[in-house]
Amino acid sequence: KVEGMVKGVKVVHQEYMSDGTVEVTVEMSLLGGFSQLILPSEIKQVEAVLPLAQSAKKSKTATPTPESRPFTGLIVDARGLKATPAMAPKIMDENGTEVYGSAYVSREYAVQIGMSGYTKDIKAANLNSRVTDNPLAVKGLRTGGLGSSDIVISNSDASRIRSTSENLSFLKKCRVLIVLD
Q1: What is the dihedral of CA 160, 112, 143, 154, to 10 degrees?
Q2: Which residues, including other chains, have CB under 8 Å from residue 177's CB and lie 6 or more apart?
Q3: What is the C-alpha to C-alpha distance for residues 77 and 29, in angstroms, rounded to an integer?
Q4: Residues β-bridged to residue 14
């Protein structure tokens, strides 16, 4: 199936070598059908996560502060860690417990937009539509996993992510952006 997808790729560079061989650079999207084939089978369709009812003690007229509003995405600052991009990255706490990974995402979102986005600009990350208007920003402590693509964050940051059901909703929708060097 992958070979069939490769037949429709766009050739972006072609170079004839002195030994008679040809080097060809091609371009293709890793989203959509390719992701459907390659992403781990444990990524399943996840049912909707319903938010908890807001406390009756909160005033309806008070403007919520960014910390009191549900987070709309996750920005992981992995600069300086030599982390590498991956199709199915994991975010782990200091104890090795998964905070974000294939168990947290809906296959539909992972196929359409990828499990995470990557950028090299921290300022642009905060404005990125993937994480929308109130992202939680955390700092990676170190990398792990095959190819240094998994990122370890502090236990306190992991607790903030796990704190509400609303956060599970943005994880399900792959609203995760990783900042690399």
Answers
A1: 0
A2: 73, 74, 75, 76, 116, 117, 118, 119, 125, 128, 130, 131, 135
A3: 25
A4: 24
* 3-class SS letters over the chain: CHHHHHCCCEEEEEEECCCCCEEEEEECCCCCHHHHHHCCCCCCCCCCCCCCCCCCCCCCCCCCCCCCCCCCEEEEECCCCCCCCCCCCCEECCCCCEEECHHHCCHHHHHHHCCCEEECCHHHHHHCCCCCCCEEEEEEEEEECHHHCEEEECHHHHHHHHCCHHHHHHHHCCCEEEECC
On the question of pLDDT at 94 being above 50, the answer is: yes
Residue owning tokens 């309806």: 60
d(CA 9, CA 29): 9
**Residues 17-70 pLDDT 10s:** 999 999 988 887 777 667 666 666 666 655 554 454 444 444 444 454 445 678
Q: Which residues neighbour 70 within 8 Å (Cβ) at sequence distance 6 or greater?
A: 51, 134, 164, 166, 167, 169, 170
Residue 23 token pair: 């080097």
